[in-house]
Amino acid sequence: MSPAWAATVSIQAQVPELEVSQTTRVTVVVVGERSVPVPRIEPVDGLEIRFAERSSRFESTPQTGLLRTLAFTYYVTPTREGDFRIGPVTVEIPNAEPLRTESVLIRARPRGERTANGEDIVVQAGFPREVVWEGEVVLYQAELTARVPVGNVAWSLPDLQGLARPAHGDMVSQTTEIGDPRGDITQVRSTIPLVATGTGDRTQPPAVAKVDVLQTGPAGFPSRRRTKHVPATKPAKLRIKPLPEAPDGYTGLVGEFRVQSRLGVEKAVVGQTVPWTVTVAGDGVVDGFDLPAPTLEGARVYRDTAEDGGRLVDGAYVGAKTFRLHLVPTAPGELDLPPLDLVVFSPKQGRYTTLSVDPGSLVVTGEAAEGDVKSFASGDVPLESAAPVELVDVYTWGVATVPPTAPVLPFLWLAVSLPGGLLLVGEGASATRAWWRRRRAANVKEVRGADRLKSLPADGAERLAVLDLALREALAAHVKVPVGTLRRPEALAALHDDLQHRVENAFASLDRCRFAGEAPGPDLEVMVRDAIGRLA
User: Fold this and answer.
1) For residues 506 and 471, is the Cβ–Cβ distance under 8 A?
2) What percent of the chain has pLDDT above 90?
């Protein structure tokens, strides 16, 4: 296995707590550069586990380059009540050491009776882990479970004390369906990455959900009539432990990280500039981290740029920072690059650890570089004296004659005026064309935003693309920027809470249908039209 970067693996349950005979999805996610076979999940007594599907997508960012994300989905159905743990799951990496995920807990409750309509909506908010370390990235999750058809779900979150939003990473909303013998259950979960900045007891106040409940019409289909429900969650428990005293050389990173080092070439000549890229990636924030300046004998190292980023990927936070360096060898021979040692704090181990990666070596040919500046010539060059300069007196008097110019004056006037005349003709033609374009554009009505919804294509993919374009145009018009320069996170942040959640949910539903293979639900177009109407 290369000591650099191989892959990151994780496992997650879409719904970790459900009733007996209900079905949820468990997904094993592999993010890396290579394809891997389907991981095998060991049988668990009390659970029916069956493989569902494999999906993949490619993403390219300046921080990580081109990466493949593989998602292996399994259907899991508990046959009895109790707590069941799936995993760790071993993922085989071709030509490398296998990687292991953590385990995931599935909690099965006894079958319950269907309650009254007002209790068919349950909301909860909290953190997957109630005890974390200072500086660690924690995920705040607000979740709604409904046994009745629901439309838009908007959250009013409390002022989260002792927590801060990272520089990179937006809220992600996900809607899932739970298979149930009595009818499917809808679950809406919003996840926000946060950095633990305070210490001690940081229990957060309740969050409030604003839910549109769709009334059931004839034949059991949802109607256009809606009622508003505003349930509140319980407080979210959280305790943040302070970090122990830091050792010398601590980088400030908190999390589980990997380091990747790449040289642009394996062989070089003295004086050649060799690209050297170092990437640090993991489940923590990296924007404040700086790579210690490496020192080498036989080479000089120059810094170029550093690019950082972070986001939620399939329910887990991934941060990455890429440093671009330039290595210039100054002497021939085999140049052994020293190991890169980074001191980080590992929340899993509860202590400081050192990440070490061997960048490898570089074979250098050519002659050693000198620090002096020398001049070279093909032989001795004698110095020659300058040629003498003869100074001539300036004449200040005399008489001169010129031939008569009257016969050629008309031709001179024509030659002088011709360029200007041609320029005026060209300007007139340009002005005429511009006038025709303005007149033609005035007679063409531009289709934007809600106008696109008047005639949607029948093809499913084209229909989703038009809905997405209409929503982006409506958002751009609302924040008064051209749609071509729209930056969705900044535009959403400028909206008030209720409108922001509505538009975010609409975008998230469209993204899942367009890029994650999710089937469009019956309320997708209603949600998009509602968001566009409120943006108008």
Assistant:
1) yes
2) 23
Contact 164, 195 (CB under 8 A): yes
Fold of 114-242: Immunoglobulin-like (2.60.40)
Query: Which positions ≥6 away from 87 have C-beta within 8 Å?
Result: 11, 41, 101, 102, 103, 104
Do 114-242 and 250-365 agree at the fold level?
yes
Q: What is the pLDDT of residue 504?
A: 84
Q: What are phi and psi of 521, to 5 degrees?
A: -80, 170
**Distance (Å, rounded) from C-alpha 293 to C-alpha 171?**
35
Find the range with the poorest average confidence among 56-70, 318-332, 407-421: 56-70
Q: Using CB atoms within 10 A of its CB, is residue 107 exposed (0-12), middle (13-18) or buried (19+)? A: middle
This prediction has a pTM of 0.53
Domain boundaries, the chain: 1-112, 114-242, 250-365, 449-535
Does 3.30.110 match the CATH number of domain 1-112?
no
Window from 18-27, 158-167, 287-296 with minimum mean pLDDT: 287-296
Q: Provide the token pair at 174.
A: 């996900």
Contact 367, 272 (CB under 8 A): no
pLDDT score at 4: 36
Query: Model confidence at 391, in pLDDT bands (50, 70, 90)?
Result: low
Contact 287, 168 (CB under 8 A): yes
CATH architecture of structural domain 250-365: Sandwich (2.60)
Each residue's pLDDT tens digit, 339-351: 889 999 999 999 9
CB 298 within 8 Å of CB 364: yes
Name the packing angle between helices 524-535 and 497-515 (round to 10°).
140
CA–centroid distance for 102 within its chain: 24
